[in-house]
Amino acid sequence: MDFSERELIQIKRAYHELDKYCTKSQYKGYDPYDILLSPFPFKKLGKWPPILAIQLFKRNPINLRKIFAVPKQWNPKGLGLFLRSYSLMPKSEENQKRCEWLFEKLLELQTPDYPGMCWGYPFPWASPEKYLPEWSPTSVVSGFITQGLDAYYRQYGDERALDAMEKVCQFFSESLHHTIEDDFYAISYSTVKPDFCYNASLLAAQTYAMCFAHRGQPTFADIAKRCLETVISRQKSDGSWNYSENLETGKQRVQIDFHQGFVIDSILSIATSLNYFPAAVEKALQSGMEFYRDQQFTSQGRALWRLPGNFPADIHHQAQGIITSTKYFSYSGSRRAEDLAKSVLNYTLKNFRDKSGYFYYRKHKNVTDRTSYMRWGNAWMHLAMSEVLNAKKLEGKPELEQKISIR
Q1: Of 6, 9, 248, 334, which is the most buried if we count CB atoms within 10 A?
Q2: Could you give the CA distance from residue 117 to residue 142 in angstroms, rounded to a whole number?
Q3: 230-247: pLDDT as tens digits
Q4: How far apart, in Å, are the Cα atoms of 391 and each of 2, 261, 330, 333, 349?
Q5: At what angle do helices 259-274 and 315-332 cross, to 10 degrees?
Q6: Do 77 and 119 meet the contact criterion of CB atoms below 8 Å apart?
């Protein structure tokens, strides 16, 4: 990626100051969804108080977690993001030690009493559809951690990471619901019930595909390919995806936000791991990226909230915009993807970065929520800047310019 010397210095400074903040905190912190860790008995009040409490504390720009005695915690998903981030940076003794520490901590924090290996969030989570107790394992948490394991293995060759990846596939195969028909394959979000959340199913498929790339299990490749084709078939004519689909009625949940980036990333990863790029995959990637670039960000690099919403700008979506456009640039050489990555990064550094190094949660039209969330914002921005700095290595490779899908 093409940065001026001044821009590169700014990115590296922001990365190191964020890293200093996170390591000083030992990667512990608050999360937008952690209020149910409070001693206050929300759950005893019925179904809706826990749901409303999560939404209230997630949206309140004043952080009341200390008052409600919510502890700062290690979030396995956040640790997986840090593991992936450090593994993308140049090899060093310090980075390797951090990766080894994060790997060992993830082994320590895995959810027990399930086959294989799996992880969940360290807090209870409630929605109108389901209630998940703390540490309840999901395809999303386990899937993102597996991406960290994959990057760690590729950088430092620790065979234990590959073994852990295979154990995650065992959990997916034996504990998650697989809904299978002739031209349909979906893997559930959690162990609670069968469902079809597009990005969750793809994250599980991505795990199978990454394992196949290392050890060549044909069953894993078949599962990944069928999940990939199922989600691609749900892409709308404008290039976007909704969030999920009711397995009984076929009704889709309309929610277009940072999950668009998740879907693009997973499709690209699965196709790369399987070396599977038929016209349908190429078209889905191109139209999906065009929609993401043109409809979900302003020209200044501010991410739009759930379409057609305009505000707030959320740090998670800012980070995802940087990651997705950087990865797409690395794949295609697209200069418009590179421009998006640069504009989103510049906007984020200018408007979300605190002088102490961490990143703010949200910017509303007239108010900025300056809460520091370790997993939701800081871990994702740590990874986003690592992705950008890692992409610098692609300069001088003219073969990338031959695969431009977005001009």
Answers
A1: 334
A2: 8
A3: 999 999 999 999 999 999
A4: 10, 18, 7, 11, 18
A5: 30
A6: yes
Which tokens go with 108? 């320590």
Helix or strand holding residue 245 (H, E): strand 244-245
Which has more confidence, 203 or 182? 203
169-202 burial, b if ≥16 CB within 10 A, otherwise e? bebbbebbbbeeeeeebbbbbbbeeebbbbbbbb
Q: How far apart are CA 19 and CA 94, in angstroms?
A: 12
pLDDT of residue 405: 33
CA 165 to chain centre: 17
- How far does Cα 40 stand from its chain's mean position? 30
pLDDT at residue number 392: 61
Give the span between the Cα atoms of 18 and 370, in whole angstroms. Answer: 15
Query: Given a cut of 50, is residue 400 above it in pLDDT?
Result: no
The label of the residue with tokens 């929605």 reads: 127
In angstroms, the CA 186 to CA 197 distance is 8
Q: What is the DSSP string of 40-99?
A: S-SGGG-SHHHHHHHHHHHH-SS--TTTTTPPPB--HHHHHHHHHHHHHSPP-HHHHHHH
Q: Which of 256, 369, 265 is nearest to 324 (CA)?
A: 265
Q: Say if residue 395's pLDDT is above 90.
A: no
Which residue in the block uniquely carries the two structure tokens 């390919």?
A: 225
CA distance 30 to 146: 23
Rounded Cα gap, residues 83 and 99, in angstroms: 6
User: What letter represents residue 201's amino acid?
Assistant: S
| 377, HSE (Cβ side, Cα atoms, 13 Å) | 28
Which two tokens mark 27?
Answer: 């990667």
Model-level pTM?
A: 0.93
- DSSP helix/strand/coil, 185: strand
Please list, in sequence order, all residues whose beta carbon lies within 8 angstroms of the beta carbon of residue 218, skipping any fewer than 6 positions away: 212
231 with 172: CB under 8 angstroms? no
